[in-house]
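User: Can you write out an input/output pair for a complex, sequences first and structure second?

Assistant: Here is one pair. Inputs:
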Amino acid sequence: MIESISPRNDRLLLAGFILAVVLGPIILAPFGAGYPDLLQKFAIFGIFAIGFNILFGLTGYLSFGHAAFLGVGSYAAVWMFKLLTMNVIPAIIFAVIVSGLFSVVIGYISLRRSGIYFSILTLAFAQMSYNLAYSVLTPITNGETGLQITLSDPRILDAAAADRTLPLSNFFGLPMNRTWDVELLGMGLQFNVGYYVCAVALIAGFYIAMRIFRSPFGLMLRAVKSNQNRMLYTGLNTRPYTLAAFVISGMYAGLAGGLMAATDPLAGAERMQWTASGEVVLMTILGGAGTLLGPVLGAGIIKYCEQIFSSFNDQVVAAFFGFLPDWLRDAAVWITSPFVGDGWHLTLGVVFMLVIIFLPGGLMEGVTRLIRWVRGRAGGRQVTVPAE
Amino acid sequence: MSLLTVRNLSKNFGGLKALDNVNLTVEQGSVHAIIGPNGAGKSTLLNCMVGRLEPDTGIVDFAGVSLLGLTPFQINQAGVARVFQTPEIFGDLTVLENVMIPALARRDGPFRLNGWAPIRGEAQIERRARATLADLGLEGQALQIAGTLSRGDKRRLELAMCLVQEPKLLLLDEPTAGMARADTNRTIDLLKTIAGRGLTMVVIEHDMHVVFSLAQRISVMAQGTVIAEDVPEKIKGNPKVQEAYLGGAHA
């Protein structure tokens, strides 16, 4: 295990995590990432990756279809908005339940195989779901337009308060898009209701994952990754363990999908596409599969690159290199421009390759090495002090 | 009293008769060795006992219960533990975790969704695991990653994983394969100590030194059948055995 498992370290890790998430809008403001839309993405994809890591990081089963659960969660949440109430809590709970049931079915079938065959089965199921959402399931998914809320929806619990405008998703009356702008040390800070709803879910998700990692159940999941044959001859049935991990991670994905719909009440089939499933794999591996913090870190970095690098254009790059002589500036712009704007995937690809080659355990391996190096230096100094 | 009874067991692979009407009775508290040349059917017999292979005909009864049709984990839960020819351990986990897993399996059964309680709270399981490790001289390596152990230590760890479950029957598939003489002798002593506590064992082994040091009864297999079964002294002098298996080298 990369992370230390003493109870004190766990409490510190959790406290640090809560602090970082709560102060997210302040910490990330200097990096240009302190606005609600991006902060919500960090939290939502963080949850998605934490859940994915419970399956992939612990059991080693690589699912290429987890976006299907994300999509199902979104559809379930929007249906709750349409039928019951615009309060996000029932929608999120319903999203988790529906994606959980969906993952029981897909997991039960896919887990009959392991390795690459399991990956292909999950990929096939996800693509099937994606295509069904566009075709025969149009009455449920509203096809290409995507599922949206309309004025004519029943909304049984909210009906009395309905007026002629489209209602907003809310947390017990507090609209999800409500933002308080605060000026602090010359920085414009934005505290958003939607972000804090996602943040509470992220912290809860992280805490549950931590409990699972440190439990006998978590140990069994790591045993699945290590040696299934030995497990069988040790009196353990691997099937329910892998299915439980699959369903738990499916429910995390459903929670993420539900939160997506809660912050922006519409759901489209593109959320289920295989590229979305691939993205969570990248996030987990980039951050460090099997570590607690890694997936959140990976999700944050990928979403940050996506938002920030993709917003750069040639003018921004030219301004950045403005201090150089004209000919050198043009050369620098020519070299870097393919890596920004629409080409941000190129940057992500290069970063991903460098991490995999030099830090196969993901960024968390880098962090661990750094801590060890610093401790080694500190330890070295302590040894030399008495000698002086 | 017999603990394990195999009656008229047959298994064909296509046209090959791997097991042909095999009979075997293992007495409670004894060490029973199965020997025979390569391809005699020893491993097939073992695999039929542990649920890896389904025999075509015959019965396998363990403590009065039929093992046929049961999966390997059900057979383990019934009290049969197995040591493999190449140690099967959890290479990515610590030595202590390797032994805690079987201890948990014995207490909690084949599956338990125990995802909230911390593993640190399992003091009794950890104590038992550490005691078993100490028993086999591995207590110093408790926090080492199991995959980094030496070959001999891996074998001892696998044995610890079986013993912590307090099985009724221990199956050993060539427990000294690939070992140097000194290591082999150490393993023999260890197995003798364990046998001395009354644990019933079935040992498949090529090394005659091991077999004659350990076994109270020996079954000799050749071409899928048991050609002789007796106490070691009589097996040594059995002309059928010498012809089929021991050959010129031991004759």
